[in-house]
Amino acid sequence: MIEIRELYKTYGSKIALNNLSITVNDEIYGLLGPNGSGKTTLMKILVGILKPTKGKVLVEGVDVSKNPLKVKEITGYVPETPILYESLTPSELFDFVGKIRSIPKGELEEKVNNYIKAFGIEAYIEQFIGALSFGTQQKVSIISALLHNPRVLVLDEAMNGLDAKTARIFRELLFEFKKEGKSIIFSTHVLPLAEIICDRVGVIYQGKLIAEGSVEELKEEAHERNLEDVFLKLTESKEDIYEIIHALRP
Ligand code: ADP
What we know:
There is one protein chain. This protein is of the alpha/beta class. It contains ten helices and ten strands. The strands form two sheets. A six-stranded mixed sheet has the order 6-7-8-3-9-10, sandwiched between helices. α8 crosses α9. The longest helix is centred in the C-terminal third of the chain and has 16 residues. The mean pLDDT is about 95. The chain binds adenosine-5'-diphosphate.
């Protein structure tokens, strides 16, 4: 469970998160919002990379500000862009992750073998990470976040760059993780994907939670037929789009 309580984050005079409260139970929770709405800031606070200006976050009951190491132990984090050691190979990186996560050697080997096969990256695991494509780096980043079997997953645009097969495999894995009782928070701009995988979604706009519920609930409340239209309506972008297109036409 992730409990976000009255969270504020400012960067100088810029308010990035404004009194945000969200609870993620054992579910897949989709975090939606236009660029600059505060999604990455929130995710970085959840995993202890950034400190909130005010408010608190509990991950499985553990206060991130008070015990960040414990939170790191139980959480898997996939950042928006892969942050990896370019001069290591994936194989070396997985060994390193295994060591710092204290994963027994046999278990690590089995997991790495299973994941590299599932994600189709066997051919790349002895090459330098810096030489790999964005998609392959993203797969390496995801595997690194899963190896210690975390109870909580914080996924910032984690499907970016994945080919269709891997995206499907990862999606099915998330369903399995949910069945095991893991809590998953997942940001995406791909609204049809959010519609398929999320039990509930929260829409943040200018650092505030402006809507929350199941996709069905939100569609009903907004009188719209799909999540994309709900999202555009909520973020006041819908009318704008027609004006912009009109202005572009000769
Ligand atoms: P999102 O992930 O939804 O695109 P971000 O969390 O990256 O949003 O950004 C939220 C707001 O905070 C934006 O206005 C962004 O410009 C600002 N911001 C993010 N990181 C920093 C930073 N390190 N310093 C100053 N402003 C930042």
